[in-house]
Amino acid sequence: MAKKNSINVALIGRGFMGRTHSNAWGQVNRFCNPPIKAVLHTACDNVADGAEDYCQTWGWQKFEQDFSKVCKDSKVDLVDLGTPNYIHASMAIEALQAGKHVACEKPLAGTLEDASKMVNAARKSKAKTFVWYSYRRCPAIAFAHQLVKAGKLGDIRHVRAFYLQSWADESVPLAWRFDKKLAGSGAHGDLNAHIVDMTRFVTGQEITEISGAIAETFIKKRNKMVGNVAGGIAAGLQKSQSMGNVTVDDTVLFLARFSGGAVASFEAARQATGNLNRNGFEINGTKGSLMFNFERMAELQYFDATADEGLRGWTTINCTHGGSHPFVDMWWPDAHAIGYEHTFTNMASDILRVLAGQKPIVPLADFEDAYQTQRVLEAVMLSATKKRPVKLKEILN
After folding, report:
1. pLDDT tens, position by position, 54-80
2. Which domains does the chain have, with CATH numbers?
């Protein structure tokens, strides 16, 4: 595609992620001063009800029900997939074959086979690909990445990662997230995907082996769903009297080894009562340690083991200083904290940088990168099923 001053975006899907991405594309020009501007060109969904109001609310110029027409539209430059996991592959491949850049929600796909097809399509295309691992663009996490890269932790020995939520109790009906055909997996693909990507990103290392994996489904049946999600993950869901089977996990725990020698533990759960969005890590090295919890997303905990022994202790870094912490200079003064939505806007700004031929503030996940996380997810489920260690070299590369 020829260089231009703007990028026409087509958003696919109007659910939780559709609203989140719409907000990001609508805000990125106002706050981030990207080298090329985002144009909210087309919103696409197979359900037309409420489309006019949606476009007016979020600023999309037009609505389209037929995805193939979006791909054939010569005015569309970037296709942004905010759809359920099972259709990522078919849509991404069609868009890439039409010459469109593609930004895809995480995980890359519902299955490893689909993810592999997406990577192959990306390799054959001249277009750019992006995967919305937006937590990389939380300033505290991006700063942790920079600290590790600068050697502040020394050799990393131990990683502990967790993503705990509590929304999926018995009152929630059988939404698509509980259907393996649509989602691919449950808490594993939804939550573990984030912390696998996050720890790969912060440590700069790859996971090489999985062991001790446990997958459990506590709620085997749920009331079938009536209507659509009104917002959020499960907001506004109505249930019928008939029941359906849950075909995904509620929680998955596993152990891992990293390429640099560190050992790690991971846990993801949707029914960890009292944890609303407890998403984070502890990383211990020979020179220092880091701790992060997204429920306090502006804060990064740092322990400097090279300091005088009498002065050693955990330091709370308020990652809101624009001169020091990534992305903050686009937003507010010190201690005027940003939130979840801003991580998506930060990512939109880095996507626009890349499309303009510039470097992102911190590395973006493309299809190749996100595929490595997908391989880890596959290895975990193989370990849980076979009850044995699984080396990543066993998983399709």
Report:
1. 999 999 999 999 999 999 999 999 999
2. 6-134 (3.40.50.720), 137-337+372-384 (3.30.360.10)
